[in-house]
């Protein structure tokens, strides 16, 4: 069993109230207000260690955290202390990592439309790798690299013809994707780089085949396609690509019925595939880059809400409303994502009932959890929703002009604020009234 297979944080305890990281969740709700994102440091470190242990037998492994799942300076610092590098996709993520005091040589810059301003910032500050996504970007990287007299190490982002999500897995010769080069375009991009751009050094290949993946076999097949390509490129161009970035994607357990594979199972499939296919295609074992996001941060995160109003539709649904919703967690309304929750205060003696947890935002679709059985909720209760570490804060919005929530890190009974709650003045801080309206 590895941490991504748990439904709740490793430190979770119930002693009348709910405790995570040794902290009483009802106390945190009082102290910091709600909605409140809580990150359990022990759970986060435990996932990192699961990954490192699982890949111990392939020493050329480099762990890169996909910052898009949750990017703050404290989270970056914590992952850096676990020896992780970073996969970033914007100047904002790069800036966050840099401001956390982390050297950019451990950072990869990826994305399908990097601007010149972003590339300039990344290259000026010594970005370790850039994943080249398209032909136009080749010229731009070379131009910016020239500005700083630098040789830029790049990976080529390719679409390997494999797409794998929780419930579907397709393998085709070609994928209709906005990301990266089609396999049939690799020769052209390599030719372009080696003939026109001496300041770009191609180090390897990069692919990402999906998110919330439950089938390890996808990674086996992805690696086969990539190693085959590395061998073909060597034969045709006499270029040795010794880096392979296979992306992220490992799934986590959001509900009782989710059964993601363990990190060990996935590692075994990946390493076996690498060993098998490097042997078959006669290539050297490459440095393996992994860039998981969700499976690193999801389980360590919970969100605390305060229960507000209630509405019983006669003979139908009972709606119980919390003080957050789609602005702090857009996943249920965007992807029909499912979550589980517990009452954080002591409600053991109450009878149970089935309710729907509604958000406070002005959209009928703002439903956080449909049909959940919980102790009969009362106004003022604290609700703890699990598995909100990934793609919640990072996709949060100010819809309805509501301030973004605070985030705290908990460990050994201590809580530290790592993101302040926005204030009303933050909300209007970028607004301007033109003179003619004054
Ligand atoms: N690498 C690349 C190139 C990616 O595009 C992604 C995610 C990752 C790594 C990290 O994948 P992960 O390990 O987190 O699955 N907002 C969606 C997820 C979008 C994922 C986009 N790419 C959600 O909330 O489910």
Give a structural overview:
With 438 residues, the chain is of the alpha/beta class. It folds into two domains: 41-297, TIM Barrel (Alpha-Beta Barrel); 301-428, Lyase, Ornithine Decarboxylase, Chain A, domain 1 (Beta Barrel). The chain is 29% helix and 26% strand. It has twelve helices and 23 strands. It has helices spanning 25-32, 41-54, 73-81, 91-99, 116-124, 135-147, 186-196, 217-237, 263-281, 294-297, 331-335, 424-428, and strands at 13-15, 17-20, 23-24, 36-40, 61-66, 85-88, 107-109, 129-132, 152-159, 162-164, 169-171, 181-182, 200-206, 243-245, 287-290, 301-312, 318-322, 341-343, 352-358, 367-375, 382-386, 406-411, 414-419. The strands form four sheets. Strands 4, 16, 17, 18, 19, 20, 21, 22 and 23 form a nine-stranded mixed beta sheet that branches. Helix 2 packs parallel to helix 9 (263-281). The protein is globular, with a radius of gyration of 23 Å. The structure holds ligand LLP. Ligand LLP is lined by residues 66, 68-69, 87, 110, 208, 211, 247-249, 291-295, 331, 335, 391.
């Amino acid at each position: 069993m590895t941490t991504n297979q748990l439904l709740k944080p490793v430190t979770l305890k119930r002693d009348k109230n709910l405790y995570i990281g040794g902290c009483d969740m009802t106390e945190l709700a009082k102290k910091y207000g709600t909605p409140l994102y809580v990150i359990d440091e022990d759970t986060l470190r435990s996932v990192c260690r699961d990954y490192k242990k699982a890949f111990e037998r392939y020493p050329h492994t480099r762990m890169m955290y996909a910052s898009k799942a949750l990017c703050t300076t404290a989270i970056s610092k914590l992952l850096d202390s676990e020896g992780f590098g970073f996969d970033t996709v914007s100047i904002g993520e790069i800036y966050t990592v840099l401001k956390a005091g982390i050297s950019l040589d451990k950072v990869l810059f990826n994305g399908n439309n990097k601007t010149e301003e972003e590339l300039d910032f990344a290259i000026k500050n010594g970005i370790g790798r850039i994943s080249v996504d398209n032909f136009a970007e080749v010229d731009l990287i070379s131009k910016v690299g020239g500005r700083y007299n630098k040789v830029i190490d790049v990976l080529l982002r390719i679409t390997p013809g494999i797409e794998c999500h929780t419930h579907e897995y397709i393998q085709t010769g070609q994928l209709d994707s906005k990301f990266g080069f089609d396999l049939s375009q690799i020769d052209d991009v390599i030719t372009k780089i080696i003939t026109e751009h001496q300041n770009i050094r191609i180090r390897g290949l990069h692919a990402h085949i999906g998110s919330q993946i439950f089938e390890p076999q996808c990674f086996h097949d992805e690696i086969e396609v990539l190693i085959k390509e590395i061998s073909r490129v060597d034969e045709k161009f006499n270029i040795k690509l010794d880096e392979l970035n296979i992306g992220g994607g490992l799934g986590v357990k959001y509900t009782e019925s989710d059964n993601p594979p363990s990190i060990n199972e996935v590692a075994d499939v990946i390493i076996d595939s690498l060993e098998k296919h490097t042997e078959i295609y006669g290539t050297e074992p490459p440095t393996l880059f992994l860039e998981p996001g969700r499976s690193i941060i999801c389980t360590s995160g919970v969100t605390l809400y305060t229960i507000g109003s209630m509405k019983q539709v006669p003979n139908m649904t009972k709606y119980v409303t919390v003080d957050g919703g789609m602005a702090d967690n857009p996943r249920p309304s965007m992807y029909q994502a499912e979550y589980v929750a517990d009452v954080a205060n002591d409600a053991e003696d109450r009878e149970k009932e089935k309710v729907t947890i509604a958000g406070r935002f002005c959209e009928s679709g703002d439903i956080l959890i449909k049909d959940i059985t919980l102790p009969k909720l009362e106004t003022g209760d604290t609700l703890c929703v699990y598995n909100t570490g990934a793609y919640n804060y990072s996709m949060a919005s100010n819809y309805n002009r509501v301030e973004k929530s605070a985030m705290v890190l908990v460990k050994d009974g201590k809580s530290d604020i790592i993101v302040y709650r926005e204030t009303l003045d933050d909300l209007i801080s970028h607004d301007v009234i033109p003179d003619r309206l004054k």
